[in-house]
Amino acid sequence: MSHLASQSPTSPSTSPASAMTADAIQAAATTSSAALSFLPDDQVRYPQADEEGYFGGFGGRYVPETVIPALQELEAGFSDAVSDPAFVGHLDGLLRDYVGRPSPLYRADRLAAASGLGAVYLKREDLNHTGAHKINNALGQCLLAQRMGKNRVIAETGAGQHGVATATAAALLGMECAVYMGTEDIKRQALNVYKMRLLGAEVVPVSDGGGTLANAVTAALRAWVACVEETFYVMGSAVGPHPYPSIVRHFQSVIGEEMIASIEHDPDVPFPDAVVACVGGGSNAIGTFAPFVAHCDRAHLPLLIGAEAAGLGVDSGKTGASITKGTPGVLHGFYSYLLQDEIGNPLEAYSISAGLDYPGVGPEHAYYHDQGIVRYVPVTDDEALEAFLLCTRSEGIIPAIESAHALAVLPALGRELGSGAVVFLTVSGRGDKDMDIVRERHLGE
Ligand SMILES: Cc1ncc(COP(=O)(O)O)c(C=O)c1O
């Protein structure tokens, strides 16, 4: 595959990165399809955070001294686990038989025609067990927790998908689980709250601030600091202090690795002109983009597009577009683009989608933005709802409202790239959790 590189990918690390040759990719993909699913191969060099956890100046560890040993222990435990074939094999088996991976790459012809594109391939993370990409990472981190001797996990959640995924993994592995969730999100995502409780998790309501995701993360991090010895924090997105962004990226990179394997193995699947994903904290997007960055040389990268939540509009004061409207600052233990006031207090983010209304974004995305590797575009609530309906009616696939933000980019891509263009798009989750929201708005009536 000529577009898959034999040169170094862009890397912020000081160590030289080396990508695989196309033949080596083919060989590795063949090996992994026989025994494993598509967790990142350690022969393929992803952009690496430096020793202090920075991707080109973004990231780091802005946490109390008392938490540093736990993060160091986590870093060592993670690195040990991912190089142990027993751990990789266990996770891989669960990804295949429990989650249902690899997820299909479905050619959505009616959606492509409606968007003025040649072909649109939907990466169906919505078909995963529990209905979203979050389970890829939650399972990985819960297995890691157990391996590190911690049988209690805590997590934060916005849309409830990461909470449900963590509660599910905890039930499967016989672990104790507490999930912190903003009171506003508890109202918006009542079904997922019920599911978490059914699964045996404690849902801890957080009423601080706007009662949304950012407040839940703050409360969960605070709770973790008090019980760091025996409790593992399962971070739900590619955010937080180092090494969390790298850990989450690793477990979510199955998404892009599988896309690349489809290109390699299925002669009917072309190399894409563009790859699109929605960006909240950024986990499904980094899991989609980073494998392309790792496998392709810069000149042959597809156009990578991250759709962030504009809310009511980027200048309305009710937005979640942290890259478009943010400036660099510190939140939840890491340095990245952040919606903040003039003295550095995080602003309340807003989006119709509970999973995207976060005022920050993962540090690797900030780096990709500054390097021009990924284009980040804001999508309003109304544009997302229009795309939600189009996908539902043209393909019979009801997406999560988060994923609808990515779908909303398609018509503009059709105009920009033309009717021959091929686009891959990650459908990060299914829309079941959003039925009350769309019903209240009488969507489609
Ligand atoms: C279905 C779905 N997609 C996307 C997101 C956004 O998260 P991330 O940017 O980490 O993928 C969420 C968050 O809850 C989600 O539930």
Write structural notes for this entry.
The structure is a single chain. Mean pLDDT is 92; it is low at 6-35. It is globular and about 55 Å long. The longest helix has 15 residues, at 68-82. β5, α6 (161-173) and β6 (176-182) form a beta-alpha-beta unit. The protein has helices spanning 22-35, 68-82, 85-99, 109-115, 134-147, 161-173, 183-188, 190-198, 213-226, 244-252, 254-265, 283-295, 322-325, 363-371, 381-395, 401-407, 410-417, 435-440; strands spanning 54-55, 58-59, 105-107, 119-124, 152-157, 176-182, 202-206, 231-233, 274-279, 303-311, 327-331, 334-338, 374-380, 422-427. α5 (134-147) packs parallel to α6 (161-173) and α6 packs parallel to α8. The protein is of the alpha/beta class and 445 residues long. It contains 18 helices and 14 strands. The protein has a six-stranded mixed beta sheet, with helices on both faces. A four-stranded parallel beta sheet has the order 7-6-5-8, sandwiched between helices. The protein folds into two domains: 55-97 and 134-248, Rossmann fold; 105-131 and 252-440, Rossmann fold (3-Layer(aba) Sandwich), CATH 3.40.50. Bound molecules: pyridoxal-5'-phosphate. Pyridoxal-5'-phosphate (PLP) binds next to α6, β9, α12 and α16.
